[in-house]
Amino acid sequence: MVDLNRRGLMLAASGALAASALGTPALAAPAERKIGYAIVGLGGYGLGIIAPQFKNCQHSRLLALVSGDPAKAKRVAGEYGILERNIYNYQSYDSIKDNPDIDVVYVCLPVAMHAEYTIRAAKAGKHVLCEKPMAVSSRECEAMIAACKSAGKKLMIGYRCHFEPNNLEAIRRARAGEIGKLRYFRSEHGFVAGNPSAWRLKKAMSGGGSLMDIGIYALNAARYMTGEEPVAVYATERTDRSDPRFREVEDMIEFELEFPSGVLGSCMSMYSANRNQILLMGDKGRIELEPATSYRGIKLWVGNGRGGDGAAEITPPPGPGATMWAGQLDHMAQCVLQNREPIVAGEEGLKDIRIIEAVYQSARERRRIALRA
Length: 373
Ligand code: NAD
Hints:
Layout: H1 4-21, E1 35-40, H2 46-50, E2 60-66, H3 70-80, E3 87-88, E4 104-107, H4 114-123, E5 127-130, H5 138-151, E6 155-157, H6 165-175, E7 182-190, H7 203-206, H8 210-226, E8 232-238, E9 252-258, E10 264-270, E11 275-282, E12 285-289, E13 300-303, E14 312-314, H9 324-338, H10 346-365, E15 369-370
Parallel strand pairs: 1-2, 1-4, 2-3, 4-5, 5-6, 7-10
Antiparallel strand pairs: 7-11, 8-9, 8-15, 9-10, 11-12, 12-13, 13-14
Helix pairs in contact: 4-5, 5-10, 8-10
The structure holds nicotinamide-adenine-dinucleotide (NAD).
């Protein structure tokens, strides 16, 4: 689980930002250089979502690109003012070690490539921000953590919701006891998968189906909303294997998480319906987010659970960045500048992958799987 002390610091940092936005002087920070990022993988997320976010950052800049498509890389470099010498391909990737302006490599590749490109970046002396899910297996996650540790480099996983104001406010209220003793967590996450030949639907590239890609949001939220680590899982899978999209990976998977305090977590992930929701119930009320983890439009409600449906919509205080992505990129940059550990370090990604492995085992063997502490 996210270290609550560090979470507290994160919330405190967001408060300082909010204070300065309101004109209250925040602690004076010395002028710092901007941390240089290289994006590896110019696909839907790396190019479509991450690259445009650097304009919202205070401590991060997009400095280099790694792509297998030279024409695309050249075009993107032109758009973002990236020097031609800072364009790499998958063959020249290791020579980033000779480029002192690259501090952090942001791995935005299919999941099966995360371990290799993280380990190569660490060996080249670079810090790594790697997309979720961290890797296709816990063994790979462990190798990534070990490589970054032995190179003395930071490793952070792209769990953007840890920088999203509504999710942060939901966590704050749950920890503050606003809904009383926590009893039940529920999250459904899904979208309709399309092209059967996409890497997400190929097990060797994705490591699994909806659970790896979108169900991981429900799992990660179960942990950050309750502040607890599950002790056991029980899962059921439903997949129409005659659907060409689901020859190799699962569609629907439902899993129960048992938490030490007695909270029950109920998570559902699917590739055949659109859904994005989180509910946390306590003995004095409930917290709901819907959509909960989408790119935009996230909404938060808090209610006392009495007298029917009386939940009120909450406007959260500003988050740690202008957007959740800017907050995420700048958090990594500040960790590098101030030699701090990211709040969502490699160990956080590893924990999710270990639980995911247990969920798959439970669905396969149709039995409850206890998780090691
Ligand atoms: P994508 O298919 O759009 O992009 C993948 C990129 O990898 C492309 O540029 C492609 O050319 C490149 N690539 C290199 N070798 C490849 C190969 N052998 N097969 C396929 N592509 C190859 O995928 P995406 O949606 O950008 O996802 C990339 C990563 O980002 C994944 O880890 C995914 O889980 C993650 N992601 C995270 C979020 C989020 O909200 N945090 C959202 C979407 C994707």
